[in-house]
Amino acid sequence: MDQSVEAGPSVHHNPLDIEQIYSKAQNQWLSKPEICQILQNHKEFHITSAPHEKPPSGSLFLFDKKVQKHYRNDGYNWKKKKDGKTLSEGHRKYEVKGHGKLNCYYAYVEGKRNFLRRCYWMPERDFSHIVLVHYLEETVRLHNLSYHSFLLLLLAIFCNELTNFIQLFEVIDFLRRSYD
Questions:
Q1: What DSSP assignment string belongs to 67-112?
Q2: Distance (Å, rounded) from C-alpha 101 to C-alpha 121?
Q3: Taking the model in full, what pTM does it have?
Q4: What is the per-residue pLDDT for 172?
Q5: Confidence band of 9 (pLDDT split at 50, 70, 90)
Q6: Which residues contact 139 (CB under 8 A, 6 or more apart)?
């Protein structure tokens, strides 16, 4: 596969760096413009013929929905709605400047709220049959947390150890002074 793929006529960004995209996808979600570029230039990538069994975090797959209708049959037990039958998938629609519309379905593995699958596609006629599937186990990064979120996280950790509010406020005050 080429190291760099020139973007198509509807894309006004830098060329796609395939190695950089795969590397980034190992640890974080791709940006919406990156996803649109991949979908709009899908012919430059490998189209997966069948879903993989329990792909690991960081896996990226492109499917042609006309060829592979069951691309979400990946062996994971995804969280279900209260009826116990229907998959509990979230749906998002985005408007991506310079690219058009982007849709996303996302789901969590049952009992593991930090492992997700996101399925992206563009409703535009030329690209609506192509879907990008990304699996990622999200991690909490303390340097990205706000002070308030950091305290809530610590409260959740220490709440079983603290026996009264005075102790709790002493810990919060100590953490506030050491965190600042």
A1: T-TTTT--S--B-B-TTSSSB--EEEEEEETTTEEEEEEEEEETTE
A2: 9
A3: 0.70
A4: 63
A5: very low
A6: 114
